[in-house]
């Protein structure tokens, strides 16, 4: 890992952490709130790829486990990994790796459609369904009800995927940014 990649990884970790300062939107029907940090997770994968994007998310989660209140609502500590949002947190590195993997494959022919499709399928559908299933297991909800609850997150997460894909597409297709990534 070069110094440049270390800086990019740390910068993306900081961006995701700053997004945690935006207050979460609590939902009356479930214990997991709507958060803005998903945009940062998507951007980490899109901008840094599978290796460094996933590393930035893992560093963030390690900082949270160490007790720093970097999640929305000022949450932090090892306890959040045993709570209702644990499934989402454990899926963050997986989602980042999968989106980053496809980004790495299509890096030379990257466009908005590829980024958006990948982010919606992996970052919205997979993250929301697996996250709510694990939330259901933690809160003793049936799996069928958990899957139905995942649809509550999807409209907002699609908007987040569009935002991340737009930013990623603009940056990845900018000649100066491409030179920085090399």
From TrEMBL:
PANTHER family: BIOTIN TRANSPORTER BIOY, BIOTIN TRANSPORTER BIOY-RELATED
Gene: bioY
Membrane-spanning ranges: 7-25, 31-48, 55-72, 78-100, 112-135, 147-172
Source species taxonomy: Bacteria, Bacillati, Bacillota, Bacilli, Bacillales
Keywords: Cell membrane, Membrane, Transmembrane, Transmembrane helix, Transport
Keyword Phosphoprotein: no
GO cellular component: plasma membrane
Family according to the record: Belongs to the BioY family.
Example of a GO MF term: biotin transmembrane transporter activity
Name this protein carries in UniProt: Biotin transporter
Keyword Transmembrane recorded: yes
Subcellular location: Cell membrane
Pfam families from the UniProt entry: BioY
InterPro entries: BioY (IPR003784)
Membrane topology value: Multi-pass membrane protein
């Amino acid at each position: 890992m070069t110094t440049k990649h270390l800086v990019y990884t740390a910068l993306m970790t900081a961006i995701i952490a700053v997004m945690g300062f935006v207050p979460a939107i609590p939902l009356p029907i479930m214990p997991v709130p709507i958060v803005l940090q998903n945009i940062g997770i998507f951007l980490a994968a899109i901008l840094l790829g599978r290796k460094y994007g996933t590393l930035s998310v893992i560093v963030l989660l390690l900082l949270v486990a160490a007790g720093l209140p970097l999640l929305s609502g000022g949450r932090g500590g090892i306890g959040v990994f045993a709570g209702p949002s644990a499934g989402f947190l454990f899926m963050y590195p997986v989602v980042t790796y999968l989106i980053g993997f496809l980004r790495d494959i299509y890096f030379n022919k990257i466009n908005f459609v590829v980024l958006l499709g990948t982010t919606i399928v992996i970052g919205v559908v997979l993250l929301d369904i697996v996250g709510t299933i694990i939330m259901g297991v933690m809160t003793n909800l049936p799996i069928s009800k958990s899957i139905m609850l995942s649809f509550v997150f999807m409209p907002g997460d699609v908007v987040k995927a569009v935002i991340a894909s737009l930013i990623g597409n603009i940056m990845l297709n900018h000649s100066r940014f491409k030179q920085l990534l090399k």
